[in-house]
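Methods — Computational structure assignment.
A single polypeptide chain was analysed. Its primary sequence is given first, followed by the predicted tertiary structure written as structure tokens.
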Amino acid sequence: MAPDAHKGRDGRRELLKAGAYAGLGLTLGSTGLSCCPWCSKQDETTARSATDAPPKDWTMVAYCCLECDKCDAYIATQNNDDVLRAKVAAEWKMAAEQIHCNGCKSGAALFNCEAKKCAIARNLPTCAHCDDFPTCDKDVWMKWPPLKEKVETMRTRLRLSS
């Protein structure tokens, strides 16, 4: 088999593994269980229900509705915590020097995903504010179903608060 032939299989394998964890609403991260690598601080004490009021300030809510202040990359950056930065880098298979994030909506965001690009193009604070979200077929929602659930929960919170 050619060396490049493994790339597609390895990518599918990672997607299936991520999907299996995501189907359970979990990923095994360095700081515990979470819905995805970007949200390893989420737990029962910080989980929000669909009946909670939506945030008044969307600055620290990522376009995919993750809360930046619960993200290990953000926390490591804000606290200049090199130990946490190294843990995040190892978990996400990145170099520790790459872990620098001031929030998804800042000039120093760690990722520039397709959901972020779309929301910016539509001038929306989050994907939850998008009328087309129910039919959105972006890969991020397939790869991390709990992210889609977060957006759906936020959409419910927005409807209930109107």
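Note: Residues 19-44+55-154 form one domain.
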